[in-house]
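User: Second chain of the day. Same drill as before.
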Amino acid sequence: MTAISEKLYLKAKSIMDAWCEDGIYAISFLVDSNETYECKGFHNVSSFAIGYNTEEDCEGAGQYDEERWNYAFWRQDETFVIDPDEPDELTDLLFDWYRENGISNIGEEDEDCYDDDYHYIGKGPVGHYELLTLVSEVAKRLQQEGYLEGKFGRKLPIIIHGLEYAWYDIEATKNANISGEADTFLKAMDELGMI
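Assistant: Same format as last time:
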């Protein structure tokens, strides 16, 4: 895990090092699975991309407004770290890591992934939760080292999510933002009934 974690960390930092826009208030670590993604003979492979939103983008939305925190309203101008449609060294490293950890049947999903009340309790397609966990650890390291505070002059939340906010996205976001950086996001999502 160390090799892939380090490579993901360095790639994430290099992407954020290039940002120079004012008003960034949240970082997006989008871990998304999509049935159209195919890589190395597997379907429904997860991707990892990084982006952000600015105060200008959310046009003065209130602290807990959906426009501020729901990715559906963001600019969605992310940069891929792992892109199954364009595999590279990091994609190869991820698949090596999957093999080393006995993770097979990438992209398949357990059909029994809802509880009796029809709440989703699954972990996404095989490989998704595992990548999400790696990404959460990378985000946590960035927070622990004070990278965002050093780069942007203040603490910022790293929101780890898919296109919907599954329970494991919230878990990963809480894990990554060790000093409460994502508390406003979490409160907003709760008030909006999204978690």
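Helices lie at 2-17, 66-69, 89-100, 128-144, 147-152, 167-176, 183-191.

User: Great, on to the next one.
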